[in-house]
Amino acid sequence: MSIAIAIDGPAGAGKSTIAKLAAKELGFIYVDTGALYRTIGLAATRRGYTAEDKAEIIAMLDGIAVELAFNEKKEQIVLLDKEDVSGLIRTPEISMMASAVSAIPEVRAYLLDLQRNMAHTNNVIMDGRDIGTVVLPDAKLKIFLSASAECRARRRYDELIEKGMDVKYEDILRDVETRDYNDSHRDIAPLKPAEGAVMVDTSGEDLETSVNKLLNIMREHI
Ligand code: DC
After folding, report:
1. Global confidence as pTM
2. Atom 2, ligand 1: which residue's CA is nearest?
């Protein structure tokens, strides 16, 4: 039987960075489910669709192939019609589009089996918004990871600046707040802590402290 750890929480709480390091330490596979929604967002953007084009986005799903794979460093890559789009999905534009497409029930249903299959065949730390509530309700451990909006915006801003992107902190904060609102107010699979989730707040903590905190919780449970 494989072991699943679900980590949910808002954008920029440090889920992916922390989960990646914790997975390495535990020898688990880290699955970033946000990348799947981003890939659908990219496919829609490439076709010139906007958040309003729901019917077109739903119709598009049958004609695209989204796959998760792992490179030689065991890092996740995401393929859209066999093209590695892992780098292309990390822009503010695609972030907003991912949030929009993730509110479409058909998009969520389309990605559900892919996510569950990963957890059936591997020990995983899977991060997203509805992993503990919808995707893996029987996960061995569920964690809800959060931090203040300002703190999350600052982290994302630093990340993007480091990648050489020309962004403003105020715009990132506004995006974080908008996405928080969208993600937690949508009708389907809204962002909320799963029953029995361990609540962890990483505001003001450095990465090492947060990783150690999570590793301690994980080791207690697995
Ligand atoms: O974690 P992220 O920022 O890469 O996620 C991108 C968007 O996808 C985010 O706005 C919420 C959505 N998402 C979701 O609805 N469910 C998930 N399991 C993961 C992400």
Report:
1. 0.90
2. 34
